[in-house]
Design a protein that fits this description.
about 15% strand; about 210 residues
Amino acid sequence: MGSLLQRIVTDLGYRPILVTTGAHALTICEGGEPAVVLLDVYLPDTNGLEVARRLRGSQLHSAIVIVSVEDASESQVAGFLAGADDYVVKPFDIDVFKARLLCAVRHKRYPPVPSVLTVDGLTLDPNTKRVEWNGRQLNFTAIEFAVLRALMANAGCVTSTAELAAQVWGDSEMRNSNTYRVTVSRLRRTLESLGGAPSIVCVQAMDTR
């Protein structure tokens, strides 16, 4: 199951770290917040629910998804009460699991944002569809605007290509399309041409921020 989850997470554009104990998971999360934590209920050294509780107790904001063979309603309720954002029963449909995983991450990474986004002099108003750089209005296509809005809402953090594609186009597989590449590239060049404006940085194996 561990290798399967690694492949799924990799397919979604993330870099997986596989650990086999709750103690190791806690140590990894102490060093920085991952996009998502996948937990089994049964671990060699502890219960996955206890790990979830401790992670939430440490103010971890990452998405937590429990993956377990325990399908009883009591077990699922216990998982949610422990702090999980989703509870997936094994075996599962891979495509559905991918969608649920992206949804859990999106809810954590994209909380309600201010009506006007501002990043280092670049402002974006979702209501008026207006973008300004130090008071100068900039013009973008509707898709470029949507990409910029998603990245500004998560400024400073890495956004996977799958997350970005799912949020903008409603389909994570769009990350492999020429449309995706051209749109992000054109938006990046526009920002770079302004001189001093926030930039889009592509991080190898982790994607976009």
